[in-house]
Amino acid sequence: MLSKKPVGYWNPKTELMPREQLRQWQLKKLQTVLSWAYDRSPFWQRKLKSAGVHPSDIRQFEDIQYLPFLTKNEILEDQQEHPLYGDIQSAPLSIAMIYHQTSGTSGKAPVRTLDSPRDWNWCSSSWASGLYAFGVRSTDVAYLAFGYGSFIGFWGAHYGLQKIGVCTVAGGAQSSESRIRQMIDVQATAVVATPSYVIRLAQVAEEMGVNLARDTKVEMILAAGEPGANIPGTKAMIEKAWGAHLGDFAGMTESGGIAVFECNEKPGAGHIQEDHFLEEVIDPATGKWVDYGQKGERVTTSFGRIMLPLIRYRTGDLVERMPASRCTCGRTWDLYREGILGRTDDMKLIRGTNVFPSAIEGVVRRFEAIREFQIVLWKKNYIDEVTVKLEPLPETPPDVQNKLSADIGRELSEAHEGLRFNIEIVGPGTLPTFELKSKRLVDLR
Amino acid sequence: MNNPVTADAELEERILRVYNDLKDILRREDLAPSVRANAVQALADVSQIVNDLALEFEVLYDLGV
Prior knowledge:
Chain A is α/β, with parallel strands linked by helices. Chain A folds into 2 domains: about 1-345, ANL, N-terminal domain (Rossmann fold, 3-Layer(aba) Sandwich), CATH 3.40.50; about 350-445, GMP Synthetase, Chain A, domain 3, CATH 3.30.300. In chain A, about 30% of the residues lie in helices and about 25% in strands. Chain A has helices spanning about 10-15, 20-40, 40-50, 70-80, 115-135, 155-165, 175-185, 195-210, 210-215, 230-240, 355-365, 400-415, and strands at about 100, 110-115, 140-145, 165-170, 190-195, 220-225, 245-250, 260, 270, 275-280, 295-300, 315-320, 335, 340-345, 350, 355, 370-380, 385-390, 420-425, 440-445. In chain A, the strands form 4 sheets. In chain A, strands 3, 4, 5, 6, 7, 8, 9, 10, 11, 12, 13 and 14 form a 12-stranded mixed beta sheet that branches. In chain A, strands 19-18-17-20 form a 4-stranded mixed beta sheet. In chain A, strands 1-2 form a two-stranded antiparallel sheet. The longest helix of chain A is centred in the first third of the chain and has 22 residues, at about 20-40. Chain B is mainly α and about 60 residues long. Chain B has one domain (about 10-65). Chain B is built from 2 helices and no strands. Chain B starts with 8 loop residues before the first helix and ends in a 13-residue tail after the last helix.
């Protein structure tokens, strides 16, 4: 049984702010960002003029719906037409203090971002707010297991932890074995990594004969970078392997900071940082707002990074919004059920049924004997097929493997309107493992 | 924002004074590099305080912050 982490608010002024007052504060920030973008960014001036909107038209909260959406492709095209940073930039390079870019996992050119001293301070503040809510305190020692490259990754977490007063240990370019030895050596109480890499570290530790729950002082795992930490089966598996609380944090390079965090109550949802972001959930097809409890695409406006004004940005993240009252922590900030559920473009249509990789993960991770998995989409006689490759733990006997195959196939089918899944058991070490964002879906169609 | 001044009115007024003083300092053009660099960092920090307390929200790029 994990002991509960301490309750506390990083900034009670806004975390407990009544929602109507919060809306007014958001409106004031939106008006400021919008006016600045219109005056200083040629891209935004063109975009708003072509939409027939002037910043002075935004007088009340609901008026945000008059503003056009921004897409990643627009930013990429602008940055290619006006290298390096596009004329979306609203301030000169001379005041930037740090450069980042998107991970480029989609195979496209990266989005380039700059932050001023104020913007970067904000970025670390948004992380600090979420980390503190989960229970991180100045007495902690945090081990950051990531590569410290130009991808924003956990840079914000690094500075957010330091803002709280945490002692940070940079686990940069080294092997998983070295990282495990180092986090034991420095007596780390918190580990920062992607969910996939946290699972990988647990596997490597087992191979080394290290029992993470017994041999380390880790009490918290602070995960971001991909869905997983709020998928119940994945969360349970990681928390058992590490003997530690697993927290889910979500941000993106384009906006800076983190927009969603899990508090110490662990309500199966992530709070939206509503003083730092204005978040909307829309029907991807119509662009209209959807109600609480309906899945839709997350649209974000950042109040922190204004060098690249990110206003009504279509993130492609799939979310389901819930009212703040669904969590007992007292914050007035709304929630996303299970954090980021996946990507709207992750959804695959297989023989008329919607299939999300995160939903498959949710089933597979309930089975502790499965070490890794991979989803393969292919065609047989022009008909879509889905195969889930399962890599059991090496010592799993053949009869148990057969039962796993049958049980997982049945549960996947039940979770997908009776869709038939092909299950293939593969040998130890066959499937790839991941340090940053995982790629468990292979589409051969 | 016209945010109501709370029970911490005196504290909030002092923070706003520091914030505005730092902005005034950074408008000067005769600052030594070390003074400017540290004043920029200080204003970045204090601007986050006034932001967190919902007292003020401004873009400070013209001051290099």
